[in-house]
Write a structure and sequence with these properties.
By secondary structure, the protein is of the alpha/beta class. Helices cover 30% and strands 8% of the residues. The chain is built from 10 helices and 8 strands. The chain has helices at 62-76, 126-133, 136-146, 160-173, 200-214, 227-230, 237-254, 274-283, 302-315, 386-398, and strands spanning 152-154, 178-181, 219-223, 260-265, 291-294, 320-324, 351-352, 359-363. Strand 2 (178-181), helix 5 and strand 3 (219-223) form a beta-alpha-beta unit. Helix 8 (274-283) packs across helix 9 (302-315). The longest helix is centred in the middle third of the chain and has 18 residues, at 237-254. The model is unreliable at 1-63 and 77-105 (pLDDT under 50).
Length: 402
């Protein structure tokens, strides 16, 4: 099945820009010189699963990821001993802000969950593991990428002990966990990241089991990347309705805790129209959540995604949103490739934004360096793509983005 929308005729390959009021004090935000009009969206009402965009995240136990890292190190001839638990520094040092105390209310009317939060940099991520079993350019690239706080993706194959260990690590560091739930039935519509639970009931039970681990903790959740925009993976309205009900059930479970901030993934600017996205979000019970996420695992510019998000927000009574900026520093390619496109850059590092209506901030949800799938020379989805990661890190460092 096609994996992307056709490129819009009214857009040129853009470069990333960040709204001028969102510049954090520790990074330089480029000036966007590309003006984009947004009058055409190339939607096709007869094809609801054209472009499953979330690729490259391992939906597998951590042990498999570490095994892959060790295999990579052995292949490169640089395998080193891997510590039982890595001690990668987290962003901003070890001191915890007063707003990062476990159990403190995270979701308060009018409050931005990202404002008091400092996202946890998982010290046993795949990038961190690769950095510890390799050397030279590969080691430096992996370490650079691992130093930026990113989402911890969880799937039904992940054990409670692994997730609990991650949560305890975040609490000890005084940081906020960022979890991407990725277990929807017919996940990725059978694409490179296929898998997930088997039935809606199993999905609800799985989400409920995770809730028992995160209840009472300050946690930010990205709910089921791809699931809402991909619809039911068929042309049938019944399949779409079932998927939206499954999302709604997950929202109902997770939002029982005032300390859990939920963002339902809504795709990106070239997938659904704002009206389509808003309609599906309503059916998924977005009213109970903080809002929605955009650009997960994709490359669209921050400026355009913010504008798109504001259109959706205006249809939802001002619901808030976040944008994945992990790989959008150079914008998309001229042909809008989504699977391991070369020449990409890191975007803005994770931080809260104030003064931009609807926008809560930027997050790194996708893990740069992990393959989008067996395309453009990449290994299977979720495995470390060393040559891509090396190029990404070198370019991003040169541009002052990493």
């Amino acid at each position: 099945m096609p994996r992307r929308r056709h490129p819009r005729p009214d857009t040129a390959p853009p470069t990333e820009s960040t709204p001028t009021d969102a510049t954090p004090p520790t990074e330089t935000t480029p000036t966007d010189t590309t003006t984009q009009t947004r009058t055409s969206r190339q939607t096709d009402p007869h094809r609801t699963c054209l472009s499953p965009r979330v690729r490259g995240r391992r939906a597998r136990p951590l042990a498999s990821a570490l095994a892959a890292a060790l295999a990579l190190g052995a292949f490169l001839g640089t395998t080193q001993a891997l510590p039982a638990r890595a001690t990668l520094p987290v962003e901003g040092g070890a001191a915890a802000s007063s707003g990062a105390v476990a159990g403190a209310p995270l979701v308060v009317a009018g409050a931005n969950p990202l404002a008091p939060a400092r996202i946890y940099a998982d010290p046993i991520s795949l990038a961190s593991a690769v950095g510890k079993v390799t050397s030279g350019t590969t080691q430096q690239a992996a370490a650079n990428i691992a130093s930026v706080p990113q989402a911890r993706w969880i799937a039904p194959t992940d054990g409670a002990a692994q997730i609990s260990d991650y949560l305890r690590g975040a609490a000890a560091a005084g940081r906020t966990p960022l979890l991407a739930f990725y277990g929807m039935p017919d996940r990725d519509c059978g694409g490179y990241s296929a898998g997930g639970t088997q039935t809606p009931a199993q999905h609800t039970a799985w989400v409920s089991s995770i809730r028992t681990l995160i209840a009472g903790r300050r946690v930010i959740v990205i709910l089921e990347p791809d699931a809402l925009p991909a619809g039911g993976c068929t042309d049938g309205s019944a399949a779409l309705a079932t998927r939206l009900r499954t999302l709604a059930s997950a929202v109902d479970v997770l939002t029982r805790d005032a300390t859990t901030a939920v963002y339902i993934d809504a795709g990106h600017e070239d997938w659904l129209t704002p009206a389509q996205a808003a309609s599906r979000l309503r059916d998924a019970h977005v009213a109970k959540t903080r809002g929605f996420s955009l650009n997960v695992s994709n490359f669209y510019t921050t400026r355009n995604e913010v504008a798109y998000g504001q259109q959706i927000s205006s249809l939802l009574g001002g619901k808030h949103f976040v944008v994945d900026t992990s790989r959008n520093g150079a914008g998309p390619t001229a042909t809008f490739l989504w699977c391991n496109p070369s020449g990409r850059l890191a975007g803005s590092k994770p931080h809260a934004v104030t003064g931009t209506p609807g926008l809560d901030g930027y997050l790194w949800i996708k893990h740069p360096g992990e393959s989008d799938g067996t395309c453009n020379g990449g290994p299977p989805s979720g495995q470390w793509f060393a040559s891509w990661a090396n190029d990404f890190a070198i370019r991003s460092r040169a541009a002052g983005k990493l």
